Amino acid sequence: MTALSPSGPLVDGKLVETPHTITVVNPATGEACAECPAATPELLERAVDAAVRAAPAWAKEPGARRWTLETVATVLDENREALARTLSTETGIPVRDAAMEAAGAAAFARHRAAGPLPVDSVHDDERQRVQVRRAPIGVVGAIIPWNAPLLISAEKISTAFATGNTVIVKPSPLAPLTTALLGELLAQSVPSGVLGVLPGGDELGAALVAHPAVGMISFTGSIDAGRAIMAAAAPRLKRLSLELGGNDAAIVLPDVSGGAVAKTAAKVYAGAFYRSGQVCAAIKRLYLPRPVFGEFTEALAALAGQAVVGDPFDPSVTMGPVSNRAQSDRVRGLVEDAVAAGGTVLAGGPEVSGPGYFHRPTLVTGLAADTALVAQEQFGPALPVLPYDEVDEAVAAANDTDYGLGASVWTTDPERGAEVAASLDAGSVWVNRHGVVSPEIPFGGMKQSGYGRANGAAGLDQYSELKTVSVRR
């Protein structure tokens, strides 16, 4: 086994051979870098059958589940370098950021291993005892996106294990290698049947969703795909956790002026362009008070001009490529459309010359609210910047969307920021920070940006059947 050559899908505790493969393209070169073994419908049936058989005993062993999660965390830590290199190769994110993702994945596993499932006490007196307990759903199908496959796989696996479920993971065909490598590394560390890792295309994902023995689907990805999954899950009333697209707005309040401008601009820039903007909760629209609009955009443009875009394994590089050709074409098309609509590019613009899917961090001003770059999720290194006169105007503009994943408020007065945050329609609203997601804090979207919550106690409930036990004394 090498980092870029996983041995095969993980089925019933074993790595199995398959004649089918997925060609994986390195976005830094635009060329094929590996062939990932791909699962077949027959392997899916075998994996589901194994997960069903393993589920009853697994549900009854909370101690074994916690021990397994600790082992998962250890495996992630011990193989951080190989995982990071694989992740960087197939997604293009700088390898140091890939290592941070591996560390975050281990943190998710350790968090879920930390304690038993909570039991809620509703009544406990001389007349009655009423408790709400969390029972497993059974087999969870986890469908993983291409942008952060290791972290999101770890989150879904860890929460499924903690709640007593078995889980089958289906990574994106655009970035299957890291998840496949994780399955290979865990093959000897988890009980047979409780984890399946099945790389494959959209047809395999559809079969996983439709399978009658799969009781829950946990999906992270686009709104359109989430709607399709919800429709396919409806006939059997499958449980769902859907973390979908976002068009996160950031509002800088008028009190940010003078020396606070440069400091705030640096943080906003990071919130927008970290990992080339390919983060579900990245800043995707920026609203600035008109009096500081020029100064603030100049500070952002200077930061964009300092970005070193290139090989993700080069220590001097601060931004790698866009992760795949389709997404690169989309970002370029949105910027071209914005310019055609009268927008002005303040920084960035053309792709970096040479092979690969490189695109410099791009700022665009002078856009109407209905311009595609403003109204849609770009999911890449292009940020529309819009002026406002009154805070209520900015809040209304931020809320005027079908998206509702995240938002942020930037201010020198945190309490005022919290007041404005309360009026924003998003599942997570940050003040003087953006996109902070951790295992203990619930995360998910409002409106079209999702259904349910991941992380925290709310995430445990999402993967559980809540069972009320009522005892008359």
From TrEMBL:
Pfam families documented for this protein: Aldedh (PF00171)
Active-site residue list: E243
InterPro entries in alphabetical order: Ald_DH/histidinol_DH (IPR016161), Ald_DH_C (IPR016163), Ald_DH_CS_CYS (IPR016160), Ald_DH_CS_GLU (IPR029510), Ald_DH_N (IPR016162), Aldehyde_DH_dom (IPR015590)
Residue ranges annotated for the Aldehyde dehydrogenase domain, each copy included: 20-469
Assigned keywords, A-Z: Oxidoreductase
Record-stated family: Belongs to the aldehyde dehydrogenase family.
Descriptive protein name: Aldehyde dehydrogenase family protein
Species assigned in the record: Pseudonocardia eucalypti
